[in-house]
Design brief:
Layout (H helix, E strand, L loop, with lengths): L12 E4 L3 E6 L2 E6 L4 E5 L1 H11 L4 H12 L3 H17 L3 E5 L1
Antiparallel strand pairs: 1-5, 2-3, 3-4
Helix pairs in contact: 1-2, 2-3
Length: about 100
């Protein structure tokens, strides 16, 4: 397990870690790490977040787009996306590009 992550800010931008394979389908997101032979699976919303990360969108944009798409409370989406980003960062699936 990796060390704890920093606090996630609204303007933070992440990118997928190199040498990982990402597959987005109707069921969600699958990440395969060929270096260690491990994989991580997430739901469709995790797939949407990863697509936003791939496109270089800041955290606040990810939160707004998910909240509006699913008509869910912005604060609840913020909490869920921050938790997801922290997990992905902790597992080395994404890395922070700029604060």
């Amino acid at each position: 397990m990796r060390k704890a992550t920093k606090v996630i800010a609204a303007a933070d931008v992440f990118e997928p870690a190199p040498k990982l394979t990402f597959n987005l389908d109707d069921d969600g997101l699958t990440v395969f790490d060929a270096r260690g032979g491990s994989y991580w699976r997430g739901n469709a919303t995790a797939g949407e977040v990863m697509e936003g990360i791939r496109l270089g969108r800041p955290v606040n944009t990810l939160i707004t787009s998910i909240a509006e798409a699913y008509k869910v409370d912005h604060e609840r989406v913020r909490e869920d996306i921050h938790a997801l980003l922290a997990e992905l960062e902790q597992h080395g699936i994404i890395r922070r590009v700029r604060p």
